[in-house]
Amino acid sequence: MMDARHKLLQAWLPTALARAHQLKGWGDVRSGQLQPASADASFRQYFRWSDGERSLIIMDAPPPQEDVRPFIRIAELLAEAGVHTPEILAADTPQGFLLMEDLGARTYLESIQAGITPAEFERLFAGAVEVLIRWQTHSRPGELPDYDEAVLRRELQLFPDWFVARHLQRELNAEQQADWDQLCTVLLNSHLAENRVFVHRDYMPRNLMTAPGEPGVLDFQDALYGPASYDITSLFADAFFNLPLAERERWIQRYWEQARAAGIALPEQFEVFLGQSRLMGVQRHLKVLGIFARIRYRDGKPRYLEDAPRFIQYLRDAIARDARLAPLVRLLDSLGM
Description:
Elements lengths: L3 H21 L8 E7 L5 E6 L4 E6 L8 H12 L7 E5 L4 E5 L6 H7 L3 H20 L11 H19 L6 H20 L2 E4 L8 E2 L6 E2 L6 E4 L2 H7 L8 H17 L8 H30 L8 H12 L6 H9 L3
Antiparallel strand pairs: 1-2, 2-3, 3-5, 4-5, 6-9, 7-8
Helix pairs in contact: 5-9, 6-9, 6-11, 7-9, 8-9, 9-10
């Protein structure tokens, strides 16, 4: 039996499809099939409509948990920068439905998992770096909410609140809390000193679509205006696949060289930027551990937490290269991580 949400979607879809066909010049609307396309860690779901020759994607973002308006606004900013995002063909913002261009069925992550040649890997990620820099060069204040200290602190707090307290069933003692506070100060001092740009916040292979040209970019509705190192760090320290540390750092250096040449204000010394990226990665990895624990225990989606060991290894990689992370060493050791 269809649930109430699906009934709303089915009632809206004919009008949305008629508008899409008109915009695309496809003529009469044909009957088609609706199939699940994907779901993510939020409350959003995606469906693919297809009539056998053409296909479109539907985002179902149920209010009040989700709001499609930021997605629509940020899609406009990305399009202004020449970034390939799904064209929005019809929208019902009060109900939380969008009908969009279908950018294909294979993400970067799926391409990697299926097996690609080194040359194809190079093509994909060189394109991803180029697109990211183009997006950043169009940055300007006042367009997106600030990725400020309050937001960064809320994200960091997910780790003690959900991963430590809920998943590990531990409470930080006084010594551990002191290490945590010291670590947060180190991270925040670095992040807040960085040049600020548009930040996608989930610029990773799962949200980039494989295409003959440049990648299609998805899942950008949480974009903010914040630290320049965030997205490139996310791209090469991913939740779902590993690159060797030396290779990650080579790609980050390529980004640093190209971004500076494009006029983005990054540190003159690569080692300084690499240090910023390393600390940015620590913030993200701690946040993601907290989010994955929250998704498991609050939302009933346990599979994300299976990737916790990868993030713990990312943290250990950073610790081995940065003496500023001594508080993190003590904290992880004391928690048995």
